Amino acid sequence: MKxxxxxxxxxxSNLQALIDAAxxxxxxxEIAVVVSNVETxxxxxxxxxxxxxxxFRDHRGKKREAFDAEIVEILHAHRVDLxxxxxxxRLLSPVFVRAFPQRVVNxxxxxxxxxxxxxxxxxxxxxxxxxxxxxxxxxxEGLDSGPIVxxxxxxxxxxxxxxxLAERILEAEHRLYPRAVxxxxxxxxxxxxxxxxxxxx
Length: 201
Ligand code: GRF
Fold this sequence. Notes:
Number of helices: 6
Low-confidence stretches: none
Helix content: 25-40%
Distance between the termini: 24 Å
Strand content: 15-25%
Order of helices and strands: EHEHEHEHEHEEEEHEE
Number of strands: 11
Bound molecules: 5-O-phosphono-beta-D-ribofuranosylamine
């Protein structure tokens, strides 16, 4: 069974989607540990309720590399094969990315490369995009810049507010992330240039 480490800073609804998919046997792996840099993150509580080991490490007052090395140590101790960022609000240093080459993924609430960074749903809405939606991508050393694993289109309606759009994108995230994790864990993929290619697809 492949082992997944999930990193959260907040609400943890994507973590919940992964937990639920794992329970249904649809993830192709198990969640071995959930780590947070926020002690009160609701995601940690979701993990505890599911009986998943948790860890908290404060990032404050530490150099980015030192904090990342602590997290990497926890993930190694739990023999994690894949690291899923799920609302983890810290940029990862090269220390982290190199510890898990092509084995760290993130979900971003816009169709990358459009609207990277914070508040992506509002960025898309303000720009007047007609289509947005989540992207699952491999994490490299840039911001929201690694190879794209999966995306789902969400139409933007005239009646949308940034909040209503974010809500529909979040529903799509909960469908997309477990599916993308399953693909990643199945291992029948390769990266050519920036392109993530799945065999027999
Ligand atoms: C999601 O919108 C995700 O795309 C972004 O952060 C948010 C996390 O939400 N990276 P949750 O903590 O999974 O509910």
